[in-house]
Amino acid sequence: MSGVYGADVSSPVSAGQWSALKSQKAVSFAVVRCYEGAGHVDPNAPGTVKAAWAAGLASVDVYHFPCLRVDAADQVRDAVSAISAAGARFERYWIDVEQGAGWSASDFAGNAAFLRRMLQAAEALGLQVGIYTSPYEWSITVNSAGFSSYPLWYAQYDGVASFADFVPFGGWTQPVMKQFAGDQVSGGVCFDGNWAPVAGTAPSSGSGAPPSSGSGASAPPSSGSTAGVRGAVAAYAASIAGTSACSKRLEYMSIIAPGETPSTQGEMCTMSSCGLTVAGIWRACGYRGPALNAPYQIGSALSRLIDIGQDTGAYIPYSAGVSPKPGDMVLLGGEAHVYTVVSVSSEADGTTLIHSVDGGYPSGGTGPGSDCNAIAATQHRWRDGQDTDPYLTRPILAVIDVTQVITPFRMPLAGFVQAAPPGSRGVDSDAAITASTAASLAASGHAFCVRHVSPNEAAVAALTAAEAAGILGAGLGLMLTQRIGASALALSSSLGTEHGSAAAAGAVAIGFPMCVNLWLLLDGIPPSTDSADLVGYYNAWYAAVYQAGFLPGLRVGPSEVLDGQALGELAFCHYWQSSGVSVTPSPRGYQLTDGGAATVAGVALRAVTAQNDAGGGSQGPGQAEWLIATPR
Q: Are residues 404 and 427 in the same domain?
């Protein structure tokens, strides 16, 4: 029989075992389980995927056995992140639809909605996706004809490597792959036998999503080209899908309301956030114009984006033939709405299919403006000047070319701004961190580094752009601090402005984007320091850093003379507790805490741990913000 043979596996397989299957069973492609029905990533997947490629197989896909107890989008992102972090790559991402995952026996519509969210989450990551099922399993789980645009891998254990047995079901009229034999054993490997009529299971059309970038997740593109800008914006947008004001409030606020007062942040969480989300994406990917700086003017969410588009020449009024590209913003009329484009493709009837990330959608999935504001992976279809999403049809008004918006501000450091997950371990270093030391830190479970800009102490080495690139290249997050020896200084507002401006200028020179935390440590404050002078210095430093677009933070040192109430009344919303400090800024508390001396790869460092603070007002807990190459 013509065609090619493959094996799908749910246990670890070595390169030698794959080679044996290749030579003895004519296996030329593999499909490896990447997520288990128990609700966690399959830890064997990355190694088995890499082993299949090492054995010279022509194609390697992965399949996801869902768990309906885990959020649909989160489990997809977790699986892809684990594979990507291990440096493995795959082609198509299959969703396994069969009993055992917790599908409802009666709520087919609910099952279909869950599957749709999984598929959209995968597509938002730029993956080619498909569905594995059988006529019977489909009939008792989803039982819908609404998924037939996705490639079908079907099961029929008849031992025949052909599609001669296939009977259309679920809207599918043609499969791309068949599982024709189960529970095969060869060379110690248990596998299912599969067949496809052509090499590779990923046809050029069908899912509407672009080809995988290699690892299955989008890596940060280089920062100079327009392609790099588009890739960075689309990848970052995809990475924040699923964030909401309810389930992931801290991350959500860091996207839509960085630098705002606690009361404003709380208020912004209640607003429809489509425009706020686009603004957050632009900021995280390098936009540095003052139009998106805090404080937010209520009611300006869309108008300020339109103004930016028109001022930069990026605003393209819609007309026949206009089509967006990845990263662009689309503006719709009627019930006004904007969204960020992740990918664009054409369907057979001429409809333009857009995979997007939209703010202002509900986490419950019942329509815009209901339930809890969320950032969602969504599909839009364009036809005859109208945009149709899962909820509404609206006129297309314009496209804003993201390259024109961001390229003038694009920084040399490629990466994304992200809230530091609580419990993340990091280090603070007065000395430069080499690329090899950064790699050792990452290998030992550290997640981030804090390095110095514009210090006034000779013993403290200032961060360079090359060092920053090495730290980010190791997969670590990176934040900045300015250490100022205060023992001989006459502290004042003007001096605070001078030091804060120097710190911000240093961050810009290295290539940091907006909204990364830049911390201040005043070292050796004389006990006789007038508290009014110190408060004036702190708030002036804050203002200089904040106006430059960074998030000012205060590292409270052992020589601090202000009490907890006075610290809490400063302009800062981010605090870091040094070793030996007992005073606590009220009511917030700390987002970083020192853990004493540490030695990694022979280098003396200070251990730091990220945590949620206690929050303030209606805001809820807050987190530090780092720059990282691939969001965690």
A: no
CB-based contacts of 357: which residues, under 8 Å, 6+ apart? 124, 237, 238, 240, 241, 277, 281, 339, 340, 342, 375, 376, 377, 378
Q: Measured between alpha carbons, how far is 617 from 586 in angstroms, rounded to an integer?
A: 11
Q: Is 98 labeled as catalytic in the residue annotation?
A: yes
Distance CA 348, CA 53 (A): 34
Gap between the Cα atoms of 392 and 339, Å rounded:
14
- Do 41 and 122 lie in one domain? The reply is yes
β 337-346/352-362 pair status? antiparallel
Instruction: Say if CB 28 and CB 42 are below 8 A apart.
Output: no
* Number of residues written out for the chain: 632
| Strand 373-383, strand 425-428: pairing | unpaired
**Pick from 411, 405, 29, 397: which is nearest to 195 by CA?**
29
- List for the chain the helix, strand, coil content (%; round to 5): 30, 25, 45
CA–CA separation, 326 and 354 (whole Å): 9
In DSSP terms, 313 is beta-bridged to none
The beta strands (E) that lie in 273-372 are given as 315-317, 329-332, 337-346, 352-362
pLDDT band of residue 410 (cuts 50, 70, 90) is low
User: What three-state secondary structure class fits 112?
Assistant: helix
Reported as type and span, the H/E element at residue 395 is: strand 393-400
Which position among 91, 98, 467, 625 bears the catalytic label?
98
CB atoms within 10 A of CB 362: 18
- Token couple for 559: 């020589």
Lowest mean pLDDT among 67-81, 213-227, 286-300, 402-416: 213-227
* Spatial separation of the C-alpha atoms in residues 297 and 149, rounded to whole Å: 43
**What is the total count of domains within the chain?**
3
Question: Does position 105 have pLDDT exceeding 90, yes or no?
Answer: no
- Tell me which of 377, 409, 441 is where a domain ends: 409
CATH number for the domain that contains residue 172: 3.20.20.80
Among residues 15, 53, 369, 9, the alpha carbon closest in space to that of 191 is found at: 9
Please, what's the b/e burial string for 134-160 (b: 16 or more CB within 10 A of its CB; e: otherwise)? beebbeebbebeebbebbbbbbbeeee
Mean pLDDT lowest among 367-381, 388-402, 444-458:
367-381
Please report the beta strands in 10-151, taking only residues with DSSP state E, as ranges in sequence order: 27-36, 40-41, 59-64, 92-96, 128-133
Query: Mapped to the 3 state alphabet, what secondary structure does 530-563 carry?
Result: CHHHHHHHHHHHHHHHHHCCCEEEEEECCCCCCC
Residue with tokens 């995968």: 122
The answer, yes or no, to whether residue 38 has pLDDT greater than 90, is: no
